[in-house]
Amino acid sequence: MKRFVYILAFSLILLIFQTAIFSRIFIYTPRPNIFLILLVYMAIENNAVFPLFWVVIMGLFTDFLSGGPIGLFSFQYLIIYLIIKTICKFLTLKLIVLRTLSVFGAHLLQIIIFISTINFLSISINQNALEIGYLFLGAFGAAFLSLLFYPLLDKIGYY
Amino acid sequence: MLFLVKKHRYLWVLVCILFLCLISLSFELKKPGSFTFLRVQILNFLKFPLKAITKLFDGLISLFDNYIYLVNLKREISILRIENQRLLYENNLLRPRAIENNRLRELLAFQKSSHLKTVAAKIIGEDPTGWYKMFLVDKGSDSGIRIGNAVISPEGVVGRVTELGKGIAKVLLILDTNSSIDAMIERTCSRGVVEGRGDYICELKYVSIDEDVQIGDTVVCSGLGGIYPEGLKIGKITRVLKGGDKLFHYIEVYPSVNFKRIKEVLIVTGY
């Protein structure tokens, strides 16, 4: 329980950092989703059940801070978490290259799920965010960030 | 049945959670504002760390700028180098404050000269996902702000308040696709609706094809709708596509507000 609270607090700080600071660092480029990077890490490294609740809670906090309806991002994060967990049953994704590719794939997957959900629910969406180059750039940025972030998490034994 | 549930309980928990997410999503879409109380409480909870991290980041940026400037100073050869360094260092500490001072002075002058009752607020965050164009500001219901209040700056219209807590508010920008403002072209008084596109350009829609529209024309709020005061600047027309068998022009409007650099805003609380 204690570990769950620590991990939740750390994730919340990352989300607040993303909300308050990332927009001022990445002014002219798409912003990588730092929580998604952490989610991929937890899905690959952690075997416990509690991350499922962690994903839902963090998804809800993202929904509260973003402009979208409640449930939109928690749904997406859950699906991504499940897909990665399922892939982990057949493949070991613990190598650096594979982890980086997983982050890249998770970002693209999030975009696909997001666009499908909003089209299905007829929610209007910002046109700029749908440009292909823009989307790939965001995913590349996230993959690059994971190369810096993951060794740090490995060292502190985050999971 | 119980045996199946016990055997696959992880799966059942997952299915229930997914189901709940979909239910809350469709519930909120059908009845917007259903979870307002919960949203407000969460926003109130998150406002303190948001403000703290923004302040910390500003301090770090200022420190970094000072360091770079001092490194450059080492190249200069002068008898008065020591005195010069001391004065330049002091000046460098004061320069960001002077820039901020000018910015706030401009904001105050605009606030005083305008007939509008406004509350100044600082931007403390943006949409973390990047999919929506919105800001978080550090003033809320305790400052007399209400949902639907217009948000402006000396350069022009910024957006409107869509969610509110005590000491924090969410502002939907005019750049967002969910934003629409009743507007008119200042020169000809031709009416239309300015809608966000999701990037840094807006569209002025429903301007009849017989209306005279030129690049460089200023677009302002018409005052109808009761949210945005009349005459407030929205932007300038940068592109007009005429002709074809369509009823309306295709007009692009470049907002007068620099959304990439804006740090403070004014929230209109009364006229």
Protein model, in words:
The complex is a heterodimer of chains A (159) and B (271). By secondary structure, chain A is mainly α. Chain A has helices at 2-25, 34-45, 51-65, 72-90, 96-121, 132-156. The longest helix of chain A has 26 residues, at 96-121. The relative contact order of chain A is 0.15. The model of chain A has no long low-confidence stretch (mean pLDDT 80). In chain B, the strands form two sheets. A six-stranded antiparallel barrel of chain B has the order 1-2-5-4-3-12. Chain B has a six-stranded antiparallel β-barrel with strand order 6-7-8-11-10-9. Chain B is α+β, with helices and mostly antiparallel strands and 271 residues long. In chain B, a hairpin with an 8-residue loop joins β10 (233-241) and β11. Chain B is built from four helices and twelve strands; from the N terminus they run ααααββββββββββββ. The mean pLDDT of chain B is 84. The N and C termini of chain B lie far apart (65 Å). The longest helix of chain B is centred in the first third of the chain and has 38 residues, at 36-73. Chains A and B meet through α1, α3, α4 and α5 of A and α2, α3 and β1 of B.
Q: How does the helix and strand content of chain B classify structurally?
A: alpha+beta
- The strand line-up of the biggest sheet of chain B is 1-2-5-4-3-12
Outline of chain B:
globular
Distance between the termini of chain A: 13 Å
Residue fraction in strands of chain B: 25-35%
SSE order of chain A, one letter for each helix or strand: HHHHHH
Helix content of chain B: 25-40%
Radius of gyration of chain B: 24 Å
In N-to-C order, the SSE pattern of chain B is: HHHHEEEEEEEEEEEE
- Poorly predicted runs of chain A: none
Number of helices of chain A: 6
Reported for the largest beta sheet of chain B, the result is: 6 strands, antiparallel, barrel
- Head-to-tail CA distance between termini of chain B: 65 Å
Evaluate the radius of gyration of chain A: 15 Å
**Into which percentage range does the β-strand content of chain A fall?**
under 5%
Please count the helical segments of chain B.
4
The largest sheet of chain A is:
none
Kindly report the greatest chain-chain contact and the residue count on each side: A-B, 51 and 51 residues
